[in-house]
Specification:
Elements lengths: L6 H24 L6 H14 L3 E2 L17 E5 L2 E3 L14 E10 L2 E10 L5 H20 L6 H13 L11 E2 L5 E3 L6 E5 L16 E4 L2 E3 L5 E3 L6 E3 L5 E3 L2 E4 L6 E2 L4
Antiparallel strand pairs: 1-4, 2-4, 3-12, 4-5, 6-10, 7-8, 7-9, 9-14, 10-13, 11-12, 14-15
Helix pairs in contact: 1-2, 3-4
The chain binds magnesium ion (MG) (2 copies).
The site of one magnesium ion has 5 residues, from loops.
């Protein structure tokens, strides 16, 4: 069931989104060669709690999961797609790319956002992957207008990614299909389910007051992914790199409003 948010709820989500974006910017500034993924997680938790909010992912257990997620921040490095578990022995190094995915609960309501950040200097191929994935998110946001459907969003993202936006004829980006965008607000994951591929006019109709998280995940090779023995970490099946950008947005009659921004 799709939950339409009230004006009051939207204002709480707007403030929560602003706080979340502020935390993500601080985390981004902290990303550097030599830091462990656990340090980033602890910093995220401290910033969230100092603001009087709660980390949404800590101990989150979706239906079907065997164990709750053990951290506040998902930190996914290089070939890890999403849901990487922070670890004090996992040290970032020059040339890595690292995805930071964070949810917060502010006054009872959830927002969700992710960025992928370079560690120092990265290869031009990785730079392009980040650029194209972030652009794919904005292409999705542009199509997220009341009257359109979830299929229209997926279609727009898919068409963009397959248009070889980096002009490199040999480059193919795999769109991860087993993970998707989603409604958000009262819960971390609500209806509708919003794949990053799709058909025009299919899926759920978007209406004003819907709050959704769009989150394309692009791989530098195959779209196929595997899950580690920890039962959380998704990684690319061919070991190539993956990037992830996500915003929580509000659907309106005209262009969507990004809630997870400073
Ligand atoms: Mg997320
Ligand atoms: Mg999400």
């Amino acid at each position: 069931m799709i939950i339409i948010k009230t004006k009051e709820e939207i204002e709480i989500l707007r403030e929560g989104g602003r706080r979340l974006a502020t935390v993500l910017q601080k985390l981004k500034a902290k990303v550097a060669s030599g830091i462990s993924t656990k340090e980033l997680d602890l910093y995220a938790e401290k910033l969230i709690r100092d603001g009087g909010d709660e980390p949404a992912f800590l101990n989150y257990r979706p239906s079907g999961a065997k164990s709750p997620f053990p951290a506040s921040l998902c930190v996914s490095v290089n070939d890890e797609v999403v849901h990487g578990i922070p670890n004090k022995n996992k040290i970032l190094k020059e040339g890595d790319i690292v995805s930071l995915d964070l949810g917060i609960k502010h006054r009872g309501l959830f927002t969700d956002s992710a960025i992928t950040v370079p560690v120092g200097n990265i290869s031009s191929g990785s730079e392009k992957l980040l650029e194209v994935t972030e652009r794919a998110l904005y292409v999705g946001i542009e199509s997220a207008i009341a009257g359109n459907t979830t299929g229209d969003i997926g279609y727009a993202i898919e068409q963009f990614v397959h248009s070889r936006p980096d002009k490199n004829k040999n480059q193919q980006y795999g769109i991860v299909e087993v993970l998707a965008g989603h409604g958000v607000g009262k819960y971390i994951h609500e209806d509708p389910y919003i794949p990053n591929f799709g058909k025009k006019g299919k899926g759920e109709k978007l209406v004003p007051g819907m709050v959704v998280a769009l989150e394309p995940m692009l791989n530098n090779g195959t779209k196929n992914v595997t899950i580690d023995d920890d039962e959380w970490t998704f990684r690319t099946a061919d070991g190539k790199r993956s990037a992830h950008f996500e915003h929580t947005i509000l659907i309106t009659e005209s262009e969507a409003q990004i809630l997870t921004k400073v």
